[in-house]
Design goal:
This protein is of the alpha/beta class. It has helices at about 1-5, 20-30, 35, 45-55, 65-75, 125-145, 175-185, and strands at about 10-15, 35-40, 80-90, 100-110, 115-120. It has a 5-stranded mixed β-sheet, with helices on both faces. Mean pLDDT is about 85; it is low at about 155-185.
Length: about 190
């Protein structure tokens, strides 16, 4: 996951309710995270989810709709390319009419969003561990399908390209070939 994010100059973030920071801890432990992990937000209270992440009032906090909105809200907040989120009931007992182990893992990119519903078993510790692992797998799966970020976020060692400047004129790598191709194609 970290290799893909670094190679493609992607920004990753997380939004958590159920896992209360475990997901950010796991993702942030990835190699070179300071280059690609934008951060995470833990929002437990429903009013915080509504204010910070745009959860529509009245949305069930233990639902696929909530998981998707948490991911989409954090995606905007962190200006990221992909976000995963967790929400649900860790246990030991039911909450809000949902049995313990009811978990939703959401994801969002600039072009799509979705969720996975999980029915996990075990004590609260096991539910949180399994929910975190599922969110990391979902993140890795969707990260594969994202194309590289544009030059506005690249943090290469090369001189940054100025807005409105053609790479042909700026001396970027491959500019000679590009200039050559552009001059032969216009004739």
């Amino acid at each position: 996951m970290s290799e893909i994010a670094r190679e493609r100059h992607l920004r990753v973030c997380v939004a958590e309710s159920l896992t209360s920071g475990r997901l950010a801890n796991t993702v942030g432990a990835g190699e070179g995270a300071s280059e690609w992990f934008a951060g995470g937000i833990v929002a437990y209270l429903t009013d915080v989810k509504e204010r910070l992440l745009g959860l529509p009032p009245g949305t069930d906090p233990c639902s696929g709709a909530c998981a998707e909105q948490l991911a989409a809200g954090a995606l905007r907040l962190f200006d990221a390319d992909i976000c995963v989120s967790t929400t649900g009931v860790g246990g030991p007992g039911p909450e809000g009419g949902h049995p313990a182990g009811t978990v939703y893992v959401g994801w969002a990119t600039a072009s799509a969003r979705g969720h996975r519903a999980l029915s996990l078993v075990g004590d609260p510790q096991q539910v949180l561990d399994d929910a975190t692992a599922a969110a990391v797998r979902l993140l890795a799966f969707h990260l594969e399908g994202i194309r590289p970020a544009g030059p506005r976020r690249r943090n290469d060692d090369a001189e940054p390209q100025r807005r409105g400047t053609s790479p042909i004129l700026s001396g970027a790598p491959g500019a000679d070939a590009a200039a050559s191709a552009s001059s032969t194609s216009s004739s």
